[in-house]
Design brief:
- The radius of gyration is 14 Å and the shape is globular.
- The chain has a single domain (3-120), classed as Nuclear Transport Factor 2, Chain: A (Roll).
- The protein has helices at 3-16, 19-25, 43-56; strands at residues 26-34, 40-41, 57-70, 73-84, 89-101, 104-112.
- 16% of the residues are buried.
- Strand 3 and strand 4 form a beta hairpin.
- It has 3 helices and 6 strands; from the N terminus they run ααββαββββ.
- By secondary structure, it is α+β, with helices and mostly antiparallel strands.
- Strands 2-1-6-5-4-3 form a 6-stranded mixed β-sheet.
- The protein is 29% helix and 48% strand.
Length: 122
Amino acid sequence: MDTIEFARHFCRCIQEGDIDAVRECYAGDAKIWHNFDGVEQTVDENMRVLEWMKRQAKSRVYEISRLELIRGGYVQQHVLRMITQKNEVLAMPACLFVTVEDGKIKRLEEYLDPRQADGLRG
């Protein structure tokens, strides 16, 4: 699958809450970095966050407004819309810079405001 197809596949896996399929998208030694804390997560740490998000949100839908190839990967701009267990709608705009090697995510850099997910903590 080409890189753009891969990017869409990755989002579908998260939307569907298929944590095992999300894990398969990452290289074993991948790093996930967020602008709000500057910390590099491991794949296992990121999977724990996604598992928590899956429990807290009844649904997740990516509205992708930009998805372009860049050297070594892709950039994606989107809004992640979630419905909480209390039926509240949350919207999280974000931008990803993703490095892909051998068909797997090697590095993902995510720019977002985590306070927009406060409704999941509820």
